[in-house]
Amino acid sequence: xxxxxxxxxxxxxxxxxxxxxxxxxxxxxxxxxxxxxxxxxxxxxxxxxxxxxxxxxxxxxxxxxxxxxxxxxxxxxxxxxxxxxxxxxxxxxxxxxxxxxxxxxxxxxxxxxxxxxxxxxxxxxxxxxxxxxxxxxxxxxxxxxxxxxxxxxxxxxxxxxxxxxxxxxxxxxxxxxxxxxxxxxxxxxxxxxxxxxxxxxxxxxxxxxxxx
Length: 212
Description:
Elements: H1 2-11, E1 15-17, E2 23-24, E3 30-31, E4 33-35, H2 44-61, E5 67-71, H3 76-86, E6 90-93, E7 106-107, E8 115-123, H4 127-138, E9 142-151, H5 155-164, E10 168-173, H6 174-184, H7 189-200
Parallel strand pairs: 5-6, 5-8, 8-9, 9-10
Antiparallel strand pairs: 1-4, 2-3, 6-7
């Protein structure tokens, strides 16, 4: 499945690799990869692979799940479609409380003690998805884990997930995408080492000129 999803994401440029002309993240970090998994929703075949894949991850890793909760905003559509496939209730968690009405942060019905799985599109440093996990726990939910489309496998993200005591499983990951990209001719084989250097230490920019 990891290779199938990697090929899908590369084909539709949901994951776009550009080691010679790095992208700049909101944090200021220069990155050889740009990831926009919202594009998976626009391709019927890829969307089917992704949503059925997420359902498979939930069934295999969190069979006791009683509801799915999407992250706002990127995880909402994926949680909704996957929940429909599985016949499960669905809701989502806002980035913060609404400033009007009931001032909800969690949208949809959530019962105390309900066993939920968080649906995210990607995990990098893990900060935002762990905020969602904590918000659900504060409302009495039992968070079984997280499923996502893509994960970078960054050290900081892995450490944060471990500290939060939550398991995350993904359809594909940075290492698989880099390997498949080289096999399919999107990048050179020499670029894979540069990508791994970025993954291991995003703040070290020495990888940028390494291929010249």
